[in-house]
Amino acid sequence: MGLDWMPRDNRIKDHNLHTDMYWGKDEDAPCVVFEKRPLKDPKGNVVDGLYVAWIRLNNPRQYNSYTTEMVKGTIAGFQNASTDRSVVAAIFTGTGPYAFCTGGNTKEYSEYYSMRPDEYGQYMELFNGMVDAILQCKKPVICRVNGMRVAGGQEIGMACDLSIASDLAIFGQAGPRHGSAPDGGSSDFLPWYLGIEDAMWNCISCEMWSAYKMKAKTLISKVVPVLKVDGKWVRNPMVITDKYVEGGEIVYGEFKTGEAFKEAREFVKEHQPNADFELLDKEIDKIIWTFANLFPGCLIKSVDGIRQKKKFFWDVMKNANRHWLAANMSGEAFLGFGAFNTKKITGNGVIDFIKFRQNIAAGRTWNEAMFEEVLGKPRE
Fold this sequence. Notes:
- The protein is of the alpha/beta class.
- The protein has three domains: about 20-225 and about 275-335, 2-enoyl-CoA Hydratase, Chain A, domain 1 (Alpha-Beta Complex), CATH 3.90.226.10; about 235-275, no CATH class; about 350-375, no CATH class.
- The protein is built from 15 helices and 14 strands.
- The strands form four sheets. A six-stranded mixed β-sheet has the order 1-2-3-5-7-10, sandwiched between helices. A four-stranded mixed β-sheet has the order 4-6-8-9.
């Protein structure tokens, strides 16, 4: 039967960057929206001539996953914020109540980049440029985590200087489950942020962490509720937010289990579409006002002094990782992204990992026949 049923995109992509031609408006999704919003004082008064740059990933139908064009738009946004004399700080966020960013666009990865390693290598040059643009921005960068920050979204989020999160946000990696590795920053940044075994587990397990657990691990700055029900703020009911010990193990920030989790999830599903980001934006405004009342040169030198520790390992590894990620597009990435992209066709978003390992153990050739065995089959 072969794999002819798998969708493929044969249009050649342009990997060159052309400044602001990749910005758009909400109705242009998928795109990046760049806005300059007036700086306001704590009383809400507009400060003449000073602004905050908002760089917004705008692909809500695909949980703000970034396409090639969106990567270009993000680079252009940070470059513009960096050189604009009137900009005090940059805010990096996503559209809607569900996701900041869930990483690279899996449809594009599967249908265009898989089995085209050189093309993906060019794409990774752009991705590396996106992380560089964040780390080199001459304005402080705040990640406004309005929802899921997963996979590449987690990596570009960690490249930011500070993160303020909705307490409905979840955080984590996805690479080893979907045919890649978290080499877009996570494997470089996490050992700086965490103990070595926490860094290892977060990197490889694909386990999702709550915003409260991220805060407890000092991976983000602040967590605020975004559900407002009957005029009252309600903290994420899916997560244990009491600081207590159960069976000798701290469970603060862990997700509830069983019926308690199911009930809480239904409550969140009902109310999340009307999430209110008032508290989130108030916290961001406080930080920006602090920035505005500092010497700009001394501020960015201080910021760069901290960033340099992240940049050191990122710069050491980014080119080698780019080459491996490109080569991997002809193997495990083809399978992983293909399985995820065709889950509506097959009913399964991952491959048969055990069969795949058995084939490797048997010394099977990596070819279409072997791949067909481990991918799901189209449903009747």
